Amino acid sequence: MDKQVSYLELISLGDKGFGDLLLAGAWLTIQLSVCSYIIGGLLGLVGAAGKLSSNRLAVRIADLYTTIVRAVPELLLIIIIFYTGTSTLNQLLVSFGIENIQISGFAAGVAALSFILGAYMTEVYRGAILAVPKGQMEAARAFGMPLSLRFRRILFPLMIRYALPGLGNLWLVVIKDSSLVSVVGLYELLFSGKQAAATTRHYFFFYTMTALGFLLITVASNIGTYFVERRVNRGVRRA
């Protein structure tokens, strides 16, 4: 019983426990994941448009982007983007007469995760766009719809139905990949669990609590994805 009480004290809130640290780490993990997912989604749309473009240069740039991200380990990409990208950006700003700016670890982490996630979203969007019947877009074009309206009214609603399963998987991927930014010192969930374990020497306990934290976020995400899919696919007959 004493051992159980001591474990409860370890994860309690306040000065005696590390519950505050773990909750703050979980919140930072969610923030990193959401921001990276949104920006990565925009990059994915741009990449998919490049791959499906009739412009050869755009196709080659998009192919190079996805090839590099899928070929290089994600941890290495994060380190390169975090350290090399920030220094390169400051050098560019200096060349334009702008003083060095301090880029936060959060912003650099989001940029690195977004860059990686965007490559995978590119392929998801590309496959979803190709799955949309061409007759739908041709009919909209025949009615004189401009490109922006065709995308908003025709392409996107149809495309998202095919893309949702892949996008749901990528959301879970970015949640787990957010733990990789711990190498650059961000106090996300894994780094917080590591700090608590190193301080108390209760390695198994705190790493288990960290795993449970990721599991809870994943389960909540799966429930949310289920309702989003039901909403998007309403009125669609299942095979």
Question: How do the helices and strands line up, and which of them pair or pack?
Answer:
Elements: H1 2-10, H2 19-51, H3 56-71, H4 74-95, H5 105-131, H6 134-142, H7 147-177, H8 189-200, H9 203-232
Helix pairs in contact: 2-3, 2-5, 2-7, 2-8, 3-5, 4-5, 5-7, 6-7, 7-9, 8-9
List keywords for this structure.
disordered N terminus; MetI-like fold; 239 residues; mainly alpha; 9 helices; 0% strand
Short overview:
With 239 residues, the protein is an all-alpha fold. It has 9 helices and no strands.
Q: Give the number of DSSP strands.
A: 0
- Residue stretches low in confidence (pLDDT < 50, at least 5 long) are 1-5
Tally of DSSP helical segments: 9
How far is the first residue's CA from the last residue's CA? 54 Å
Overall 3D geometry? Answer: globular
Number of domains: 1
CATH topology, what is it called? Answer: MetI-like fold
What is the H/E order? HHHHHHHHH
Rg measurement, Å: 22 Å
CATH architecture assignment name: Orthogonal Bundle
Helical proportion, percent range: over 70%
* CATH class wording: Mainly Alpha
**Helices and strands: which structural class?**
mainly alpha
- Average pLDDT for all residues: 84
Q: Supply the CATH superfamily name.
A: MetI-like
Question: What is the multimeric organization of the chains shown?
Answer: single chain
Strand content: under 5%
